[in-house]
User: Fold this.
Amino acid sequence: MTAEDSLTRDENIIAQMNQISKDVANKSPLVSKTEPVENLKMEYKDNEQFLNKIERLGKHYSTIRRVRGDGNCFYRAYAFTLFDRCKKDENLRERTYKKLETTFGWLVKLGMPSFTTEDFHETFFDALKAHCESGTDESLLENVLMTMACLTIS
Assistant:
């Protein structure tokens, strides 16, 4: 195999991976609208262990949101849950704002570049404010993931 053949093969693999990612993105939203927990029972009707867990889940929550499993799903689910709760609870929102105000300096002291950290930090505030006022724009939520990742690795 020549270097040119290898390069063409690599380009084809990358193109295929990009197409798969695009197909997944078109089929499932980053975060779904709420749906009844009961939907999980239908989905896992043949799995007794899951059904028991879904039953327990249903005692505490009436709805769920699905999150696209793409490697950032934990951060996205956590951020969206935090945003949803802040939207409903003004006291939590104010506590979250105050806590976030301290994180920028903390991240810079830990060695994160101040220029990019400031951008992510401001985006997080903007996204939280926008969500509390009118709902979440998926593009803003994606930018929030960088802040979540920075906080986690620090």
Q: What stands out?
A: The mean pLDDT is 83.
